[in-house]
Design a protein that fits this description.
The structure is a homodimer. By secondary structure, chain A is an alpha/beta fold. Chain A contains twelve helices and twelve strands. Chain A binds a DNA duplex through residues 4-6, 14-18, 20-21, 23-24, 26-30, 33, 48-49, 51-58.
DNA sequence: GTGTCCTTTTGAAAGGTTTCAATTCAAAGG
DNA sequence: CCTTTGAATTGAAACCTTTCAAAAGGACAC
């Protein structure tokens, strides 16, 4: 029904080859001819068929982005919501500018996710991938490298020498946070881990431990607890930490939302956060500054990262090489009122 | 490089037609042959080329979703973040289940957005569209109807008889909110509008005004102020309202984030929200319940809506008809502590 | 054996573009 | 007026499927 390149050619009185050349600038076309073709295109409101084009030139003009989602009807809001959306916004902006789309797919981690990647790759539905939330041992990285499909990741993997990525320097971030707390006099610092398996968990913990070591602060294993990126995870972790016979005077959460959950748990125990106990977050979501108390946290330029990752991927697709292969973003500590000098906490049970 | 259907056919010792039939179940194939073909497919890790398939059968297996984004480097976080993500999550879940992808594109409203739709439609890149944030006079609705492209919207338009949508009953929502406030004794109620142009602004205002009328509360035009979905918009609007010689005792914000901004502005003036002044939000984002004070708001089941919209669109694409063409979701008022009985506010200037 | 009727399989066209070798055109040089 | 040359244009193949009319195969009755 919609017009094809043949219709345009007929109307302009030229061959389809010429129309194609006008469309792609693939050969010199005389100015008057060019004008005639463009006129016909306008008149017919012609737009080349994407599938035919892809079939021929093996480019889809699409980037793949598979979002890890927990399935099920009553899923609680993913807490990294804001970071993801900012990231996506940056990616979209760059992609749109270059005229490529982003094909979004969702899958729970595991075999189902693998199946999605396989289908997208083997079915040639995308030109390359944007990877999010890289894991220490990341099947996706191995698969895409094996298949020779270009990709750029937000985050590193155990062995990240090989592929291009942008990541926040989590080690440095945790050095900043921990130094800040130690400077305030804290020596019993609770540490809530990001979800196990994510590479960022490794880097962050290593930064945390390094500072403890440097200051000769003994490591109490019970102060390190499993956690996650949700409010509930932060709440539960804080509760566990406060039940310890010798609870921490400061707690580091894996992100702002978990920090907010942790704060709520502390407040429920009658503690005043910032005075009786300090809490630090991660991400610096907009609400962090407005929270009660305003949250000390580490700023993560998610939007910029999304844009940069996309730029790198597009460069990889056209040049075949990425200018800066691996980018490590220096985090910035934003000190607010959820952290304060150490104090004798009065835990009322 | 990757195997084609011919490779599979050769390996299985059959014709390409037979392989295609096995793939699509388009003809009866003898069981033993079928098995041989499947075996070859497995061995080669074959996956039909999406472009070739699309070219032939005129289906892309992709739904289009164009997100309205404000461009520019320093854009403040879109405040409807959470709602959008939940919506997207629901849509993705259903789409993934049916094996279709979501092609995401971003564009600022205006000619650029039109160009994006045009390219996607005329280039046959998607089978249908999911529309978000419908406007009273929505060019997209007109264009898609004119082009005969299937779509389902989250939200209505001025004339919504014609197209399928899911929407929250904003009129009813504002009736609930306003009745709640009037019941608490409020008669001077400030109203912060959603961004102008959006259809939801119309419905909501109409619900608000209806209840005022019903209770014989005179309408003071200065209590209705332009607003938006951001923290800043809420903050500014509240500031303006409090500057009035006779400020309101309650304020209705267009969403939770704006309500939080409004609360901050009120607190900055020394008011205790819930006692000196009441504030109501919209959306019921997860943080609303944990806010200080916990926010009275209207719950919006964004995830379900995203899923439902997608289900409707998929039905439209396969059957050609949608079971329930238009769905109006009844909102639920969640009363928390940001609203309370009217009080003589003591505005300290 | 032959004819009939299903069931299964085949081969080629069609879908809309790009690309490339080949052809035509126009102008310049002799 | 004929050649030569470089620029502009053309036509057909190729990309990988699906689809459909036609052919082949197999079972059964006569």
């Amino acid at each position: 029904m919609p017009p094809t390149i043949h219709d345009v050619a007929r109307r302009a009185g030229v061959s389809v080859g010429t129309v194609s050349h006008v469309l792609n600038g693939s050969a010199t076309v005389r100015e008057t001819t060019r004008e005639r073709v463009l006129q016909a295109i306008r008149e017919l409101d012609y737009q080349p068929d994407a599938a035919a084009r892809t079939l021929r030139q093996r480019r889809t003009g699409t980037l793949g982005l598979v979002r890890t989602i927990q399935s099920g009807p009553h899923v609680l809001a993913e807490a990294s919501d804001h970071v993801f959306l900012e990231f996506l916004g940056g990616a979209q902006e760059v992609a749109a500018q270059e005229g490529v789309g982003i094909l979004l797919w969702g899958a729970p981690p595991g075999p189902e996710e693998e199946e999605v990647y396989r289908r997208l790759v083997r079915g040639r539905r995308v030109d390359g991938f944007i990877l999010l939330g890289t894991r220490v041992d990341d099947w996706r990285v191995r698969y895409l490298e094996e298949q020779g499909v270009p990709f750029v990741a937000f985050g590193r993997a155990a062995d990240s020498v090989s592929f291009p990525y942008v990541d926040v320097d989590g080690e440095q971030a945790l050095r900043l946070i921990t130094e800040h707390l130690v400077y305030l006099g804290h020596r019993r610092i609770g540490y809530i881990e990001p979800p196990a398996g994510l590479t960022c968990a490794l880097h962050r913990r290593s930064g945390f431990l390094e500072v403890l070591r440097r200051h000769g602060i003994p490591l109490d294993g019970r102060l390190i607890v499993q956690g996650g990126f949700t409010w509930e995870a932060g709440e539960r972790a804080m509760r566990d930490l406060l039940y310890l016979p010798d609870p921490p005077t400061a707690v580091i959460a894996p992100n702002d939302v978990a920090a907010m959950g942790a704060i709520a748990a502390a407040q429920a125990r009658g503690l005043k956060v910032g005075r009786d106990i300090s809490v630090v977050g991660f991400d610096d979501i907009p609400l962090a500054a407005y929270w009660q108390p305003p949250l000390t946290t580490v700023h993560q330029p998610a939007r910029w990262i999304g844009a940069e990752v996309t730029r790198m991927l597009l460069a990889l697709l056209s040049n075949g090489a990425v200018p800066r292969k691996q980018v490590l973003v220096s985090p910035e500590l934003r000190v607010r009122q959820s952290t304060g000098p150490v104090n004798q906490p009065t835990v009322s049970i």
